[in-house]
Amino acid sequence: MEKIYDPKIIEPEIYKLWEKSQFFNPDKLPFLKEEIDKDSNNFTFCIMMPPPNITGSLHMGHALNNTIQDILIRFKRMQGFKTLWLPGIDHAGIATQNVVEKELKKEGKTRFELGRDEFVKRVWEWYEKYGKIILDQLKKLGASCDWSRTRFTMDDDYVKAVQAAFIHYYKKGLIYRGERVVNWCPRCATSLSDLELEYKEEKGSLWYLKYPLKENPNKFITVATTRPETMLGDEAVAVNPNDIRYKNYIGKKAILPLQNKEIPIIADNLVEPEFGTGAVKVTPAHDFIDYEISLRHNLPLTKIIDEEGKMKEEAGQDFIGLSVLEARKKVIAELEKLSLVEKVEDYTHNVSRCYRCGTAIEPLPNLQWFVKMKDLAKLAIEEVEKGGIVFIPKKWEKLYFDWLQNIKDWCISRQIWWGHRLPVFFCGNKKGEKNFIVVEEKPNKCPICNNCEMIQSEDVLDTWFSSALWPFATLGWPKKTKDLETFYPTNVLSTARDIINLWVARMIYSGLEFMGKKPFNQVYVHATVLTREGKRMSKSLGTGVDPLELIEKYGADATRFGLIYQSMGGQDLHFAEEHLVAGKKFCNKIWNASRFILSNMTDITELINLKKLSKILKTNKSLTKSDEKILLQVQELKKNVAKKIENFEFGQALHDIYDFFWHDFCDIYIEKSKQQMKDEKLKESTQKVLLFVLFNSLKVLHPFMPFLTEKIYQIFPIEDKLFLMVEKWD
User: Fold this and answer.
1) For 230-261, how does the pLDDT look when each residue is reduced to its tens digit (9 = 90+)?
2) Cβ(31)–Cβ(726) under 8 Å?
3) pTM
4) DSSP string, 45-111
5) How far apart are CA 322 and CA 409, in angstroms?
């Protein structure tokens, strides 16, 4: 063995050996027996990698989550399971389109100048060049995925799965088209679901505006608002029915300033008496709560802001074409001239912004496609309530239930060009909302007018619609494939808490709807990696840590060690680099201990059969108390580590391994063995104990630190040797 362990040389070398062996592929595993083939589901273990975006590169969250998944897969593989860890990447519609549009901007071009077909072609070129980088980065981490089964959400087969899902929902009456108030990003020019928004606390103002009463224009009802420009589209003033201050106002009329139109004063329970004056303006077209109120009170839907964030004709002649902020200033100036601004207060509130570009969201009415969620949400709730799917830690069930129990219909259409285009075709002659059909392929003849070339919908599906099918579409659905039969349902989903509703819940009801079975048994929600100070990691804020730089500095095993050693079950992980330093020292300790043990095997001339060795040690009467103690300890360690991995107590398991190897084995037994090997009567048995304990230590270490352990195993003087990663755990 080399004197010094150098991960920069050894880790790439070992990974090449693994890939050459093909043992990441469950069909190529060397220990598959007849009993596995007879009842494969009892011997399979499958994890679906949460597909990273094609725009992404490895960050600390990826590093932690993929290390956790690799620990589980390597452990189960060593237990003799037919293991599949299926990797893949997500097309990330809005994010990818933004990236490619920025590239075009550097060339002085826009996507509209290219046209849809050419733009999509450019995105595919970008994907071929950059889209798979993160998968190569995962290899540096040691991820033992079956790369031969890598999936992409825009692969031909996956596209067919998405189309099949859409058509199924539509035929079942769960997908419909309608005009409703949606979240609109003026920058990305598309609708967004509630879950695609980010809320940023911002300092603003709260304006108190006076609306004259019709019966006495010298009297007023005062409303408080953070968006005075939207008053141009007001259709009512609302108060809480139990607010005694306004009992005599309900049913009367107010005059909307600047627009000079009569609007009713109504009562609704959604109004919070504690906010502002207790009276609020109702702008149904540009506020979600106001839209709900309007449905109950049959109020008109007057759209005054367009999709570019500019004021429409309905806002009034003086405001046409102004941006929202320009209109706000003008509205306030005009109201002040009329003495209708009672007061202005500083006000801090959450502003919803696009999760991709950061632009302030405009709620506005738009014709979109929606999925009815009531019945699907019920499916997902019942499956978790009955224990069919278990969240770990259990506390995350509350977040899951809260969203599903208060769910709204899901807006699934997006007005961008990159993604899964809706399988919807409109009649080219007959205009109108209902002159369309939903089919997989464009018909040669229009069934509506019999005399036109049908036009496919310009919209694409929300990225999360396609990723909701991930656990089964990746296995070949809607075809009945061998992989689907063998590996579905999958076993464990390891994921972050921020996508429980975006992704996890949607996979659960999708699996139940399309497969009639849950997509996985357990959902492990790992900790969020924060800075030492507890701040969110962000490259743009300068608080990010690049795991690739850590791998370059310390090696993948030390990086994995440092992350898992800190993962003790808490909600957040405050990252500290000194744990990686400790990981590197531990790698050196393991290497040096192994060098000592293997260098003392010179007297053993024949290759060792470890199964026989285990039996020999059990019956060996020349074992010392120290021998017996360490043999007992290593067997107990294997049992405890296995139990803790099964219970997702990864940090605790690694602490146990570390303490055993460094202290019990190295500090105590190896030192004792040096004395024992001076005694010729004890030498051979001591050598065998050292070899046996080291071998079993490497086994329990392998899921956590695979490169180092595999390298040492390859030097072992044992017969019938393949790879440590396929050695049986027991």
Assistant:
1) 999 999 999 999 999 999 999 999 999 999 99
2) yes
3) 0.88
4) EEEE--PPBTT----HHHHHHHHHHHHHHHHHHHTT-EEEEE-EEB--HHHHHHHHHHHHHHTT--H
5) 32
